[in-house]
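Format notes (please read before filing issues)

Several people have asked whether sequences and structure tokens are stored in separate files. They are not. Every record keeps both together, in the order shown below: the sequence lines, then the token lines. Line labels are part of the format and must not be stripped during preprocessing.
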Amino acid sequence: MSQETLLHELNERSREVFRRVVETYLETGEPVGSRTLTRALSEKLSAATVRNVMQDLEFMGLLDSPHVSAGRLPSQQGLRLFVDGMMEVDRLDPTDRAAIDQTLGNDDPDTGVLLDRVSTALSLITRGASLVLMPKHEAPIRHIEFVSLGADRALVVLVFADGHVENRIFTPPAGQTPSSMREAGNFLNAMAEGRTLAELRAQIGHQIAQRRAELDVMAAELVESGIALWGNESSDPRLIVRGRSNLLDSEIADLDRIRVLFDDLERKRDIVEFLELTERGDGVRIFIGSENKLFSLSGSALVVSPYMNADRKIVGAVGVIGPTRLNYGRIVPIVDYTAQLVGRVLSGRKG
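Then the structure lines:
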């Protein structure tokens, strides 16, 4: 049954009971009993009548009962119905607005530092875990260099034509030598200058195949592993995560699921999907529980919004993760305002 049909099926009494159950749950995080509701409803109803209405809502899949006598909780379907069809979004609180404005008011030339401050501020303001996906750097490449840091660690330095520099530590193939690293760097620099990273990735496989005879095997492996640092989004450090400890302070009861969420964030899996989720439409999107593949095992919700560059192209996203009982009405305008402000600030920058 579609959400529109479900809403149509609810009469005025059922809507009020359902709305009160959800709002009370979002406020307290506890199952809601019929006696509690009878004191809050505008229409004077007996506890028995309220119980009957709640049973009907449970039959429709909108409420769950964790225990026989423990009251009712909104189901994932119920939360989705409430968020899409009944929730009232608050106006952005002036205190929250001032905190966000202050974060972006210091025009740091380093975009990474700026967005790290944004992520920290979002976490503090919302008391959830915040996520900021930084934009890719698309300027032409000037120089690439590999630097050995030890037997199992190496640094790759990428210098762009506009002066931007990216450094990345990675694990090189076993047995690399300074000589093979120089060869790999020379090989990439011969074909990289003037190309963007995307253009270089498109050419690298073909070029390695053509010139493999000119490289020793280990140098070829280094080229492939080094360039994969930018080609493989699952290890992309563009995702800034702050405030993970807030999830432990929240009332997500299943610690094993929280650990899974932490593992997902640490490994930064499915980062491409995180951005793609926002590219299907402008504005804030809300993913509850298993609706979001990225955090489907965490028992959590994600509120996320894209931000755009000066050409109105989506280049990144900001979001907040919390328990499914997030105060959506407050979080949505915070995320929306932050995304718009980040877009305006970055659009005003050169490069």
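For reference, the curators noted about this record: The beta strands are 63-64, 73-74, 129-133, 141-148, 154-160, 165-170, 239-242, 285-288, 300-308, 314-323. Residues 229-236 have pLDDT under 50 and may be disordered.
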